[in-house]
Amino acid sequence: MAKLYLKFEDRVIREIALSVGVVTIGRQPDNLLQIDNPAVSGHHARVYWEQDHYVLEDNDSFNGTHINNRRVSKVALNDGDVALIGKHTLVFSAQGGEEVLAQSKSSDRSVAMQSQVDKVRPPQLDPTVILDTKRAKEMLARAAAAASATGAPAASGNIEGSPVNGPRVPSGRRIGTLTVLKGKTNAKYYVLSSKLSVIGRSEMATIRLNRWFAPQIAASIQQREDGYFVVGAGKNSRIKVNDSEIGSNQKELKAGDTIEVAGVRATFGFEG
Amino acid sequence: MPFAIEVAAQTDVGCVRADNEDNFGYDINCGIFVVCDGMGGLAAGEVASKIAVDTLLQYFQDRTGKSASSQNPSENVSPRARALGEAIQRANHAIREASAVQAGQAGMGSTIVCALVHENFVSFAHVGDSRIYLVRDGSIRQLTQDHSLVMQGLRLGLISSKQAASSKLQNVITRALGPEEIVEPDLDDMIAMSGDTLVLTSDGLTRVLTDEDLLACITAAPSVNDACAHLIDSAKEADCDDNVTCLLIRFVEERWYQSCIRRFRTGSDHGKAVS
After folding, report:
1. Three-state SS sequence of chain A
2. Rounded to an integer, what distance in angstroms lies between the CA atom of residue A63 and that of residue A164?
3. Which of A131, A166, A194 sits opposite B149 (nearest CB)?
4. Residues of chain B under the 50 pLDDT cut
5. Which domains does chain B have, with CATH numbers?
6. How would you class A21 by CB atoms within 10 Å of its CB: exposed for 0-12, middle for 13-18, buried for 19 or more?
7. Residues 242..271 of A with a Cβ closer than 8 Å to B: which?
8. Which of A:101-160 have CB within 8 Å of B?
9. Cβ atoms of A265 and A210 closer than 8 Å
10. Coil, helix or strand for A91?
């Protein structure tokens, strides 16, 4: 896979893997390859794939794009070509690593992701693009591999606090159970395999209450990534966990906890 | 206590596009609510999203009163959520069949977000980057996770939320109705409480408005109808370049006599459509 190296005074400061997409170059931050220098125009030039080769096209920039001391408007790129943009040089290499993301030293992985996507995105199709499942999975797997290969901590500020490296591995999550000790229900033992188990008289309820005046929905037990939680169905629902009222809060359930709601008393546990 | 629901929905072509590829639909008696965002050139996007909405409504109108036919108890959601999943498969088929027949519609697709409501028991499902939000007690929570490259990258910790927000890949989605033989919707259930508002939206709205904007619009408006209009206006003021659609469902607890009066007046068992 071909690459572009952005150099300043013989030092490589950026490296971009090329694909069948457009790499925009310029001073403005919306460029894929931003060169923050006054000698560079806002949207200075572009590199993209045309039929069977890469081309570099100058966007009528003020200071121009030069290859071998010649100002160019549009040229086919050959291996080892050096373009001068302002005070920076751009080196084109026809052979690069096979693994785009794994070798990208750029800390901005979205750039690597972008070039991956450009490969599958025909320019100017529909505003929304669908990646097929296989490609999306490959792409994310590769990005994950890159993240762990570089050993770099995953970008900070990810909202869910998901594991830093690689895809989230489904932990050996245990399935909760509920054993009824007291009260009229349609069964005495429940396996809480659903994400949501409702306690109530409603036909939607998993733990169905047979008492005539029982509420339609008295409470629900939610299975989430981080455990099981019991939640009341409304502001007036009275739920006790281990004999203390939980009010309108949710309460995480631990093995051995007892729940009391709408005349039913049950203990929570885990399967196996 | 019985629950009534108030519904309002609106779609707008937005500030830039020439056509509206979004579609929505609902049937308050079946409790089905759908928003779809179509894609594909030459009006095919409109067709795809329309097919998806119609298929969903038809599916639940046909099976009113029947129990869920989908029998796969290994999944960890309610039979009603599984029924949504089945309806979405059908919509996927319908779109694929239509695009196979009509030359101009090859490759069309659509996102979908839908909710199936019975009293205050809500099952919901989505494919793509259309979303459901829950507004409860002055706070807002997104219930769905976009099937988009950016959001998946974010969830896997590959990019930061800042990078995600500024990414140019916002428009790349990883699941949709149409492109593949089998579609994998995300299914879930929840219990609504009195005063809750559910918001089903296309990405046109959520690209330009933050969660806080949504919350402010919804809590400030006296009715769902106003909230809906306010959301669309805000999106247009923010120069949205896409179609915008939102569908709001508000849950209102009623006393038994209020419910009797409503049934008597409107002849509806389930609530009222505001717009």
Report:
1. CCEEEEEECCEEEEEEECCCCEEEEECCCCCCEECCCCCCCCCCEEEEEECCEEEEEECCCCCCEEECCEEECEEECCCCCEEEECCEEEEEECCCCCCHHHHCCCCCHHHHHHHHHHHHCCCCCCCCEECCHHHHHHHHHHHHHHHHHCCCCCCCCCCCCCCCCCCCCCCCCCCEEEEEEECCECCCEEEECCCEEEEECCCCCCEEECCCCCCCCCEEEEEECCEEEEEECCCCCCEEECCEECCCCEEECCCCCEEEECCEEEEEEECC
2. 43
3. A131
4. 275
5. 3-270 (3.60.40.10)
6. buried
7. none
8. 108-110, 113-114, 117, 121, 125-133, 136, 139-140, 143-144, 146-147, 154-160
9. no
10. strand
Q: Which of B162, B172, B183 to mutate to test the interface with A (most CBs of A within 10 A)?
A: B172
* pLDDT band per the 50, 70, 90 thresholds, residue A111: low
C-alpha distance from A125 to closest chain B C-alpha (Å): 8
Mutant choice from B99, B156, B168, B255 vs A, greatest count of A C-beta within 10 A: B156
From B183, which residue of chain A is nearest by alpha-carbon distance?
Answer: A133
Q: Which helix (H) or strand (E) holds A132?
A: none
Q: Is A63 exposed, middle or buried (0-12, 13-18, 19+ CB in 10 A)?
A: middle
Length of chain B in residues, anyone? 275
Residue of chain B whose alpha carbon sits nearest to that of A136: B174
* Cβ-contact B206, B131 below 8 angstroms: yes
Tens of pLDDT, residue by residue over A115-146, are: 555 555 444 434 677 777 777 777 777 777 76
Report angle CA A199, A200, A204 to the nearest 5 degrees: 85
Which pLDDT score, from 0 to 100, does residue B225 have? 93
A175 within 8 A of A270, measured Cβ to Cβ: yes
Cβ contacts from A onto B, under 8 A: 153
Residue B127 CA to residue B72 CA, distance in Å, equals 20
Chain B contact set for A168 (CB, 8 A): 155-156
Segment A68-73 mean pLDDT: 83
Tell me if chain A has a CB within 8 Å of the CB of B96: no
Query: Using the beta-carbon criterion (under 8 Å), do B160 and A131 form an inter-chain contact?
Result: no
Kindly state the average pLDDT of the residues A191-206. Answer: 88
pLDDT in tens, B134-151: 999 889 999 999 998 888
pLDDT of A16 > 60? The answer is yes
Closest approach of A144 to chain B, Cα-based (Å): 7
- Cα B72 to Cα B59: distance, rounded to the nearest angstrom: 18
Enclosing H/E stretch for A58? strand A53-58
Render pLDDT for A146-170 as a digit per residue (tens, 0 to 9): 666 554 444 433 333 333 333 343 4
